[in-house]
Amino acid sequence: MKILLDEKGIYHDASNSLKKEVEHVNTISHSPLSIPQKAYSTELQHHLFGRQLLAAEIPFSLDVLETHIEQGYVAKTFGVELDHCIRCGNRDKQLFYTFPCAICGQLCTYCRSCIMMGRVSECTPLYTWTGPAYEFHVPKSVMNWSGTLSEGQQTASDRVRQAILHQEELLVWAVCGAGKTEVLFAGIEAGLLAGKRICIATPRTDVVLELAPRLKKAFPFIEVAALYGGSDDRHKLAPLTVATTHQLFRFKEAFDAVIIDEVDAFPYSMDPSLHYAVQKAKKQTAATIYLTATPSKQMKKQYRSGKLQAVTIPARYHRQPIPVPEMKWCGNWAKQFQQKKIPHPVQAWVNERIERQIPILLFFPSIAVMETASPLFQNLPAVYAEHPNRKERVQALRDGELQGLLTTTILERGVTIERLEVAVIGAEHEVFTESALVQIAGRVGRSFSYPTGNITFFHYGKSKAMVEAVKHITSMNEEARKRGLLDA
User: Fold this and answer.
1) Which end of the chain is less packed: N or C, by CB atoms within 10 Å?
2) What is the largest CA-CA distance in the chain?
3) What's the predicted TM-score (pTM) here?
């Protein structure tokens, strides 16, 4: 079957041979493999172990698959059963479509929720490996990292190690800039040496691209797979995997430990199918570790009631408090922008930092507001999620080639720039949740050299989220002081 793979890693049927192949699955005249009876293909095991894939994603003939099914090494199920998508867990009837299927010759239902990963329907087979488990070769030494942890990091590191080794569920609640990745290293090392397969899952591709080199450097003696749409590693079988949460749709009972980074971030926080993907990808006895600086209200409630075990890191590794945002009234900012005016307090804030050559980010509640305001801010380009030059402009700000950027909430996470200061325009807008405001504030004061800085919430009336964000940061600073994690 001819399959095209686009730049996002999405499969597309490029011929009518799909019909012939699926018909072949149902009417196949079984022919023996050229391998002895009850032997199995180690190449197929390597490709399919821990995964749940379409035939189009498996570089083996249907004869090979069917023979392995007969011998008990491979299991086949159909993609949609009783208005339930086996791959993504979708049960929303509005996200299914029934049509006269030319492949099975009947009215057939397919899932629209995960169509971007290749169509699954009532007559589409999904294949999983049910034969002997693949044995990873793990050397006696797997980690090469000589860094040191702060006291808060060390406490969390010990707890993560325990959770991985004892298949526990754990929340790591760490402030922005606490060094969460390094906290994982000892637990990953212990898990790998104990023969466990580990996955770090994150909602965003750019986080995978940032984490993968760090993990490969820290664990140079083992294979590390980086999975995202279009990834070169998409067929790699590795004891340590870092992947977008969307990629977990292709796994089944694969991992002994799943670490979910930025568990509060979109789309994971808003998409139940991604929660289903995580549950399907891990083994029933797997450890589950959640990493976040801003846990949801539900997670906080579970933690405070004792239903969810947690460890907190209330201080950054440089042992300085997190800068607390200032709130500043700026009048009807939306109306002023429509009148082609910058609110005076905002203009004064920007001018002061340009004069002192401090890099800045100005956060806007929407692209529309930002585009209205953009012509008024000379020499400050704008970026948003789909902007073609987003990565280049952010890098230019890092390199000191730009004084600042106008941005939407797309840069609330994953940005570390020395001396950076930030302002939120229209901070009372509903898009600026407590979580978003805490994350935005977390861009400031992240380095040893510049642990302080200004965050200002410009508003036309304080919101509950603004007040809660300030309270959140203040309480973490207070906890850090009580635990002796801040320098005097």
Assistant:
1) C
2) 81
3) 0.84
